[in-house]
Amino acid sequence: MFRLYFATLQFMSRLPVPGRWSQGLEVDQYVRGIITFPFVGLLLGALAGLVFVVLQPWCGLPLAALAYVLALLTGGFHLDGLADTCDGVFSARSRERMLEIMRDSRLGTHGGLALIIVIVAKVLVVSELSLRGSHMLAVLAAASVAGRSASVLLMYNQKYAREKGLGNLFIGKVSGKQTALTLAGGAALSLLLVPATGLFAFAITLAAMSVLAWMLRRTLGGQTGDTLGAAIELGEVIFLLALL
User: Fold this and answer.
1) Domain extents for the chain?
2) Which of 35, 72, 175, 225, by CA, is between 20 and 30 Å from 155?
3) Which helix (DSSP H) or strand (DSSP E) does residue 52 occupy?
């Protein structure tokens, strides 16, 4: 289990995970690490939240919130997926053309707007939650847990929209038991981190991600690695908004 955790952490972030900690795992075995998604989110969210907590007394709420958003422990991996997804889906082209646009490394108008909206939304909602006296380290860790846990809904019983790609490691490969364990882990951590409203916010996030999965499947014919990244980013924002 520890090897799966570190392999998943290495796959989903830019943290310097020693190769020997995940040694012996083939790439096609990474799907078994789906149940560690909540705990990977816990670590990444806690580290990004620590950036906010440390900087807030020195530079104020907005700049600390921006530093939290731009900590980029994932190297902007999920934000890139969000931008590519929005460029494709909002292009109003055929399914095949949408998928081609999503492969294009250039940033389009819709992708740029999506990045601006999500980043600004995170800065504003994090600042507001802090002003309301929330325990921000726990809240930001919980948001990361919720976003990554809820992304399993875009994997289970879903079809991969492409022939090849990293998303194919997970999409359509996750079992019902793995999905249940992932969601149970996310729910438990959300409740522990934010006892009053964490479980409610987690439920709202799951509902929103279910709708997103249905819409993307209808539009693209399935999911891709980009849509998984988009789900994680949007899941975090929705969880934080639900806490308000």
Assistant:
1) 38-243
2) 72
3) helix 37-59
